């Protein structure tokens, strides 16, 4: 395991902690897309099917998989129950069936093997590359976000961005290249590019995160 993957996983864990802390401290899930959280739960449940037969092979990998699945499910639970009054279905309206359908089509067309596990794994990779779109769409519609929400999104984006040097590391030093994961990771990082720029020019300089509506 290399440093870039560890940093990516830590960034992912930080994003989860920030999100849960945001809801706990504000007693609200305002500004958070429920649709994005549901898409991420679909991603983890379809990608980590191997957890049932590889748990003893790597305690680190298995623990991370459990944390991602359970924490995302818990986040959705909180949003649908404890903080449901803060949900705004008039803003969180991105047509996610296009994302699911597109990811499913790519998974069927370009799997490494035509097995249930491999097709679902490919589906999870393509879906994760665009799962953040409902959240970014919400930001675009509202034109602003709480600072803690932007920190959550930055940590989540950094998690995927750090996986790009991880793949390069594995390619050059281990001879392993995964074209599906690499292309999907680049797509996801590009989707974050505008957000990263505004985060750097505004949030890190103490200004309010605002977008043109």
UniProtKB/TrEMBL annotation:
Cell compartments where the protein resides: Endoplasmic reticulum membrane
Membrane-spanning residues: 66-83, 95-114, 120-139, 180-200
InterPro entries linked: ER_ret_rcpt
Gene Ontology MF, one: ER retention sequence binding
Keyword Transmembrane helix appears in the UniProt entry: yes
Keyword set, alphabetical order: Endoplasmic reticulum, ER-Golgi transport, Membrane, Protein transport, Receptor, Transmembrane, Transmembrane helix, Transport
Keyword Endoplasmic reticulum annotated: yes
Major localisation: endoplasmic reticulum
PANTHER family, sorted: ER LUMEN PROTEIN RETAINING RECEPTOR
Family: Belongs to the ERD2 family.
Name of this chain's protein: ER lumen protein-retaining receptor
Organism per entry: Ascobolus immersus RN42
């Amino acid at each position: 395991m290399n440093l870039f993957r560890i940093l990516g996983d830590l960034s992912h864990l930080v994003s989860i902690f920030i999100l849960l802390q945001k809801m706990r401290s504000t007693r609200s899930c305002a500004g958070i897309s429920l649709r994005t959280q549901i898409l991420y739960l679909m991603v983890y449940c379809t990608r980590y099917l191997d957890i049932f037969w590889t748990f003893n092979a790597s305690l680190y990998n298995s623990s991370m998989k459990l944390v991602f699945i359970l924490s995302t499910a818990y986040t959705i639970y909180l949003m649908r129950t404890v903080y449901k009054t803060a949900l705004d279905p008039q803003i969180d309206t991105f047509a996610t069936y296009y994302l699911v359908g597109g990811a499913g089509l790519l998974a069927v067309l370009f799997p490494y093997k035509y097995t249930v596990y491999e097709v679902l794994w490919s589906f999870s990779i393509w879906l994760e590359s665009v799962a953040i779109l409902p959240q970014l769409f919400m930001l675009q519609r509202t034109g602003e976000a709480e600072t803690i929400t932007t920190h959550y999104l930055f940590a989540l984006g950094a998690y995927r961005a750090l996986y790009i040097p991880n793949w390069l590391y594995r390619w050059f030093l281990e001879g392993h290249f995964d074209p599906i994961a690499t292309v999907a990771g680049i797509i996801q990082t590009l989707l974050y590019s505008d957000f990263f720029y505004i985060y750097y020019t505004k949030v890190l300089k103490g200004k309010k995160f605002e977008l043109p509506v």
